[in-house]
Specification:
Layout: H1 2-10, E1 24-25, H2 28-32, E2 39-41, E3 45-47, H3 49-56, E4 66-68, E5 75-78, H4 87-97, E6 111-114, E7 128-131, H5 133-139, E8 145-148, E9 152-156, E10 162-166, H6 188-197
Antiparallel strand pairs: 1-2, 2-3, 4-5, 6-7, 8-9, 9-10
Length: 206
């Protein structure tokens, strides 16, 4: 019954499909199960380490490292980027790529993937590409390589062949509409009327 209510309210089939961001602060030993020091749930307080581990190891969970001073224990720095493409960045990549970035594939974007493997600081728009499920799987097979180009991506197959994918024009496909040369003292409507009155069929007979 709860899943039915969630589906009708959010459009998602299961409650687990709802993306919710929460913050949990825990030590590496608690995360790895070497100790059971309670974790801190942002905005709530301490929670048992077992519950924190269950939340942190979910399929949609991402981790951000926090660095503390070994002498004082005070927080001094943290990872500047996250591993997953989500939020406004994900929307930007979907709007930019519009369809799967693999050459000769026009399937819908299902995943947003790193062109170059994640290294802790390259979750950026320049290193992102929208892919369908099949292309995402293909990219990670042995021998495949994807490189960035000025207007898209270059895919290299295990046989050494290269194929370039160009991002679609944001203005759409098809012929471009001619923009009339309008004088600064003339409105667009006035320009159209002048062209219509200039046609012989619309001139009054003398």
């Amino acid at each position: 019954m709860c899943d039915t209510a969630v589906e009708r309210i959010t459009g998602q089939k299961y409650a687990d499909d709802i993306a919710v961001e929460i913050g949990i602060l825990m030590t590496p030993k608690s995360l790895l199960g070497d100790e059971d020091v309670p974790a801190m749930l942002t905005g709530y307080g301490p929670v048992p380490a077992a519950i924190a581990r269950q939340l942190a190891t979910g399929s949609k969970a991402w981790l951000r490292r926090l660095f503390t001073d070994p002498m004082t224990g005070n927080l001094v720095d943290r990872d500047k980027t996250r591993r997953r493409f989500d939020g406004p960045l994900a929307g930007f990549v979907r709007d930019r790529d519009q369809q799967c970035s693999r050459p000769y594939c026009d399937c819908r974007i299902r995943d947003i993937d790193h062109q170059q493997a994640f290294n802790g600081s390259n979750t950026t728009a320049d290193n992102a590409q929208g892919l369908c499920k099949r292309s995402h799987t293909t990219k990670h097979l042995p021998g495949w390589r994807v490189d960035n180009s000025m207007h898209g991506t270059v895919w290299t197959t295990p046989t050494g062949h290269t194929y370039t994918s160009t991002r679609p024009d944001l203005n759409g496909y098809g012929p471009k509409r001619h923009v009339p040369n309008i004088l600064d003292t003339e409105s667009a409507l006035g320009h159209r009327l002048s062209k219509l009155l200039a046609k012989p069929s619309l001139r009054r007979r003398q």
